[in-house]
Amino acid sequence: MVSMVSRRPFAPVWWARSGLAQTLVGSWRVHRPRPALRLERWETLDGDFVRLHLGDGREGAPTVLVLHGLEGSVDSAYVRELAWRTRAAGWNFAALEFRSCGGELNRLLRSYHSGETGDLDFVVAELSRRIAGAPLFAVGYSLGANVLLKWLGERGDAVPGCVRAAAAVSAPYDLEICAEQCDLRYGGAIARSFLRTLIPKALAKAAQFPGALDADAVRRCRTFRSFDDLVTAPLHGFADACEYWRTQSCAQFLPAVRRPSLLISAADDPLVPARVWPRAQVQASPWLHEEFSPRGGHAAFVAGGWPLRARRWAEGRVLEWFAQQLEGGAGAPPPG
Questions:
Q1: 20 to 30 Å CA-CA from 289: which of 9, 112, 137, 205?
Q2: Structural domain tally of the chain?
Q3: Within this chain, do residues 295 and 223 fall inside the same structural domain, yes or no?
Q4: Which of 76, 111, 142, 170 is catalytic?
Q5: Catalytic: which of 53, 68, 113, 298?
Q6: Would you place residue 133 in the very low, low, confident or very high pLDDT band (cuts 50, 70, 90)?
Q7: Is residue 293 part of a domain?
């Protein structure tokens, strides 16, 4: 097991204690405006592109790379919070927007999904070249956490040496169970909220590549199962939604992870039930450190007092973890 590190335990704000309340408040209320970042479009090897939002810190300082969740972007509340905190610490910042996210449709028929790690591999390689040996840390949220943990397991000992540690917040360790949860809980409202943007993007792809999708069927989608059967699976080479979910879930890749990785999840997460937590993998691995909390919602973890004084806890905890992983334990936790 990774040795225990000091922590500031999460305690939810008194006025948003349930998982649903935490999730909603964390998404809509507790955020800061985006700091000034530099947008770069990086051409990928297959003729497409990804978008990176970069913030410069001190020369030689660590870089924090963040991967957003499903239909997220640089404007997601947790990305903004990390950008501010790394800036305050003098660290470098990079936010990867997956293909088709951030308001710009990508060129190719394929887009992004929970297990697509090729673009992350490409971005890490390019960042490694740019930072010339300085430390690189990576953090993923929700879908981005699944991508990150799967990539770490796929690469194992071959992860670039500059990658010192990782963190995964609200990872959906079993995509099938989590999709079912979103399709059924609250009358399917969780899935439908994501489909409000996923369906128009799929229809744009259908117009961009005539005959690739059944547009009428896509318009009728009301669940992740139907959307992944009709869109995600065929566009990315899977037989159906079940094959996609079962082959791309990150839990099966955790035994091969070879970088210190902090796993943060909440038992009241409305999207990711606690029964998918990888307790056995954590117990068996010297690289995995869990901080599973009774409360916190999905990618939220809103702490503090009154509404105007509320703050996001997970981002500070992640950066504290990264600071502790620097060689020799050097480097104070970034200021909040």
A1: 112
A2: 2
A3: no
A4: 142
A5: 298
A6: confident
A7: yes
Structural domain boundaries, residue 179: 175-248
**Known catalytic residue: 142?**
yes
Q: Does one domain contain both 219 and 231?
A: yes
Is-catalytic flag, 68?
no
What global pTM score does this model have?
Answer: 0.94
- Per-residue model confidence as pLDDT tens digits over 289-300: 999 999 999 999
Give the active site residue among 170, 268, 269, 293: 269
Annotation marks residue 228 as catalytic: no
pLDDT digits (tens, 9 = 90+) for 63-88: 999 999 999 999 999 999 999 999 99
CA distance 275 to 203: 35
